[in-house]
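Fig. S4 source data, part A: sequence.
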Amino acid sequence: MNDVEVVVATLNLIDTRVYRASINSRNIQASQATTVPRVDCDFALSGPGVPSKPVQTKIHNSMEEIGFGPACWLWDYLRRSGMPGYFLPLSGGADSSATCAIVGIMCKLVFKAVSEGNQTVLDDVRRIAGYKEDEQPASAEELCNRIFVTCYMGTVNSSDETRDRAKLLADQVGSHHISLEIDPVTKGLVDIFQNTFHKELKFKVHGGSYTENIALQNIQARSRMVLAYFLAQTYMWTEGRNGTLLVLGSANVQEALRGYMTKYDCSSADVNPIGGISKLDLRLFLNWASADPFVNYPVLASVASATPTAELEPTTGGHVQTDEEDMGMTYEELEVFGRLRKCEHCGPYSMFSKLIFEWDHLTPDVVAEKVKKFFKFYAINRHKMTVLTPAYHAESYSPDDNRFDLRPFLYNPKWTWQFEKIDKKVQEMKNRKETVEAKTERHEKTDEEELAELLKKVGELTVKIQNKKQNTFAQ
């Protein structure tokens, strides 16, 4: 919470010399070095005193890092920006709920610092939240209600479950929550199209084409972004206060890598606290935050267990939209792809060469298909990566934004050379397998023939023995 933290300690330099002398390699070096003259002085750089006792360090676990790191980052960003708070489109899904929880944790950390008498933090709270000089927040939830606005933007495709989860989470966090419907906005835009071109757009489940289906989903997503900025700009005015709220984004690592987001939807915002965190880690974080005594947002457990869905298509008896079905790959697979791409610098062929051994439960052609699908969508959605919302980068596998990413802006989505090499490798493996099977079959056939020949000889020998016995008896 502080700009600068100063730690003062008294150290015994003799302990440092003794430690260095205990390292054998240093002893060898010291014995060969030129002796440095030592001059005794009648003064000391420090006053008399006993050495400080060792401080027990606190090492946060990964869930605490996800919760506390972005929370401190958001507070620092808010107080430096001079804005009066944050605005979050809260869908009730895992990503936006995680972002909401992180803002709630931010308010808890700020309130804790104020309660402990941190005057610097209190001055920032009064300036940002509009408290008078003799006032201060009575609770973290009260502070949250003054600087954090959440908004559920429902459509006819939204479910009661996500609506209820968003409302319950907002109540537990303490945000000022708004629930509204955006159907009039999307209907107005679709009507403009249909009046202009005299064509009716249909979802896929109603017989529409791929283009119609995507367009009708994207117009909902983009309408939410436009409305989010409109409400963020006007909300403080409705409360009789000045300023504009900062809009929070909530897109995770896998969605960015796969391009599973609408360009300039609610993934486009001022800052994104979870932009460097994977979906799998966010699920673990939600479960942790639902049970941790300091955070204590129980509704997050039900959010973590819910099936991820964009809720942009109509739900019918035989069709329910899910993220993984739309993407054509699981979040677990996407995490593997992301780590290999970023941490191990793998392209299509090198990634395939690793995964045929790691994913030995799959055939090489299935692995090849998954790798090629990932890189195809990574390439065609590359333009989205260059406009990612500035994010808190928490992991080495997180996607870089355009400020640090020096890779080409656009890739050839056909990956001609790499995909041909993968196909050639798959064919070689198939041929090798067929050759081994053919040899095995020949060996098995040879064994059968030898057995048959042996049985034939045994039969012939048996007949000879019986004839010999009969001749003996006859004599």
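Fig. S4 source data, part B ends here. Residues 416-474 form the longest helix (59 residues).
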